[in-house]
Amino acid sequence: MTTDGFTTCLWFDGQAEEAAHHYLSIFKNSGLGRIGHYNDAGPGPSGGVMAVEFVANGQKFLALNGGPQFTFNEAVSFQIRCEDQDEVDYYWSKLTEGGEEGPCGWLKDRFGVSWQVFPEALIDMIGDPDPEKATRTAQAMYKMKKIDFAALQRAYEGD
Fold it and tell me: Where in the chain is the domain with CATH 3.10.180.10?
């Protein structure tokens, strides 16, 4: 048994392999692992994909074709802390394709998985000990869907 950390299991309804390949196409430091298939014991159709192991951006995942019983919601999301606006734009574009935009840098991808895409500097800006800077930044963020880093910086600086 391997005990080298955590693996996030994502429950899909027949889309596990498609989702794994989608995430592999987006994230660096990614790779496909083992693909397990259902057999005559079920519960899925014999020969159908049961589970796909993959690594996306260095994080381990298992995509499971578990059926329609459970779906994703915003109670769990993945944060992508970006270096700059270009990186925010890249991930936003790739992950909203077939998905939907949400407020404050949140989105749902085409599989219903929730993501938060924002510049790393946002954490320091909204946590600034100067309450006016922090408040201006937060108020600007609340008006956004995709994060506009230049607009956040202007709000932070009081421009």
Answer: 77-157
CB atoms within 10 A of CB 136: 21
Please, what CATH class does the domain formed by 8-65 belong to?
Answer: alpha beta
Helix (H, G, I), strand (E, B) or coil at 144: coil
Residues 6+ apart with CB under 8 A from 26: 56, 91, 94, 95
Q: Which two tokens stand for residue 145?
A: 């869907």
pTM: 0.92
pLDDT in tens, 22-68: 999 999 999 999 999 999 998 889 999 999 999 999 999 999 999 99
pLDDT of residue 157: 97
CB atoms within 10 A of CB 51: 21
What topology is assigned to 77-157 in CATH?
2,3-Dihydroxybiphenyl 1,2-Dioxygenase; domain 1 (3.10.180)
Q: 126 φ, ψ to 5°?
A: -80, -10
Structure-block tokens of residue 76: 């769990």
User: pLDDT at position 1, please?
Assistant: 44
Answer whether 144's CB lies under 8 Å from 159's CB: no
**C-alpha dihedral (142, 145, 146, 148), degrees to nearest 10:** -40
